[in-house]
Task: structure prediction
Amino acid sequence: MNSTIMRGAPPRTTAWAWATGSLATGAVFNAMSLFALFYMTSVLGVGAALAGSLLFAVRLYDAVTDPVMGAISDRTRHRWGPQRPYLLLGAVALPLSFALFFNLANLSVAVTGTMLLAALVLYSTSYTVFAVPYLAMSPTLAPSYDGRTRLMSMRVGFMIVGVMIGSAGGPLLVDVAGDGASGYSALGFGLGGLAVAAGLIAFAGTAASPTVGTGQAGQPPAAAVSTASNRQDTLAAEPLPTLGQQSGASQPPVQGNPFVQALDVFRHAPFRLLTLVKLLQLAVLALALACTPFFFRYVLERPTVEISYYLALFSVAGLVSLAPWRWIITRRGKREVYIVSVTLYGLGMASWFLWQPGEAEWLFYARAALLGVFSNGTLVCALALLPDTMEYDRLASGQNREGMMSGIFTTVEKIAGALGPLIVGLLLEASGFVEGTDAATQPESALMAVKLGISLVPALICLAAVPVLIAYRLGPTQLEAMRGKEPSAGVREGNRLCD
Result:
């Protein structure tokens, strides 16, 4: 392992390449969050409640596949490392399934329903195959507390670019290509092609990255080298040494049912609390994105292309704020900054309820910029805390379960992403929303439902995250105290946290 890794930060080229993977997931995830419900209701003519329920139901499937993928990642031994083979598979399958979903217009009603379900399941599975192992690489790439903040800030930077492409470039692409079935078809193929390229960069650029328990980047443990001539270079479900062990050292294997292991991970309060906060935070983002096309079209009465301008400013403001957020987090603490940023984000969302026709144009764009800054602050904090929580689990349990925890976090990400369309779909259905055409005149009750869905409802969810963050107390002092202790001692030390 090179000296840069030993100091706690990966080589810059490796870090940039790995972070590029977030451009792929950010682009497709945000495009799906922004347009999936609108596309299903206004282009395909699916009922709002049914469309929202279908998007949510697929996430229940993720609750099964994500922990399983995490367990597979934890137990895989391969000459490329335990995660990279899945990055290659997911980098190809994810964009293809995304393109399929947005090319289902002009089919019969029966075929459309079947193909929608198939495309959503394929998309969800592909996202899992890529995102779970991808996230599990982070604590190995950056072993130090501050190194993780730097690595994850890079990831957030690429994620913001992906968000900008998916949620700001997406509407522009739809508008240019026809603002109908042809526009969404162009969206599927255009962003799908970009995601392939970004995913392959993440795969190729991490070829020299360290693997858990290896003596050299990209090489298998010493015990495996001695038997290399007797095995094939295929995936095998074998446990890898714990992070930080010497090459060839033994480790308690990750054994048993992956769902039992997933429940066991939740015994540790830091991960339990962080997961709940992440669920609430991403539900806010998904709710806002799902509401945005309806809000622009029916409440603000602005064309689809203006979503691009709004979300471009949102994304640029977030990107510019990345370095200041990192500076503030280093000096004030991850949890403390998280509490402030999520509170400000909630207040910013609530301000949309005060919008009235004729409001000054500068207020419209000021909201975009401020919400981008506050949203980015929450993302940086959440991602910087996750590797710390993964290390805490390893120190407390004596097992290497980054893949399992990554799988759970990815499941939460997807469930939160589906909660937005589900809530919006139910609100629209209850308010008398007219499906089948995006040019339909909507009743006042539907307009109020859209306005609530983009303002007060997400604001309340943000505020609900604050007491959960207050209960989270894992920091560098606690981690340092646990290092070098036996797992049982680590459990006793950890049980004093967040209780």
Observations:
- The longest strand covers residues 76-77.
- The first helix runs from residue 3 to 6.
